[in-house]
Amino acid sequence: MFGFFKGSSQQGATAMNFRQIDDGIAVAGQITEADLGAIAAAGFKTVICNRPDNEAGAVPHAAIARAAQAAGLEFRFIPVAGAQMTPEAVADMAAALADLPRPMLAYCRSGARSANLYMAASRQRG
Predict the structure, then answer these.
(1) Which of 108, 102, 116 lies closest to 46 in space, CA to CA?
(2) Domains, the chain
(3) pLDDT of the chain, 126 residues: tens digit per residue
(4) Are 31 and 39 a contacting pair, CB within 8 Å?
(5) How many CB atoms lie within 10 A of CB 34?
(6) What does each C-alpha distance from 50 to 10, 11, 33, 109 come to in angstroms?
């Protein structure tokens, strides 16, 4: 099991919520650039963003990608708008699961979209 903390300059360190859904795969709600160091320290190797940039409250994926790279993490942007999971997104997620190092943390607004995309991609991979 992985564990790390989400820092907040206003409230101090609080436990970051994420859920392990399979061996080497966890999902979480929105992360920020400040979280990437702790995510790397927790042992994650890859971060996958499933949240479109134009969604209310989303941190632009390019900012997360830069922070992930600085923390030594792989990053992939596979946006899924709400429940509109496209065949392309499923194929992209399947490719990420096959190609990128684990453990992986996929995130969206709540983690539910990321979990659903993972399940669809896993079925596609067989």
Answers:
(1) 102
(2) 5-125 (3.90.190.10)
(3) 444 434 333 333 334 678 999 999 999 999 999 999 999 999 999 999 999 999 999 999 999 999 999 999 999 999 999 778 999 999 999 999 999 999 999 999 999 999 999 999 999 866
(4) yes
(5) 12
(6) 27, 27, 15, 9
Closest CA to 25 of 126, 125, 123, 114: 114
Q: Exposed, middle or buried by CB within 10 Å (0-12, 13-18, 19+), for 124? A: middle
pTM for the predicted model, two decimal places: 0.87
| Tokens 């979990």 sit on residue | 115
Interatomic CA distance for residues 92 and 81, integer angstroms: 15
Tokens 């992360």 belong to residue: 31
How far is it, in rounded angstroms, from Cα 95 to Cα 19? Answer: 22
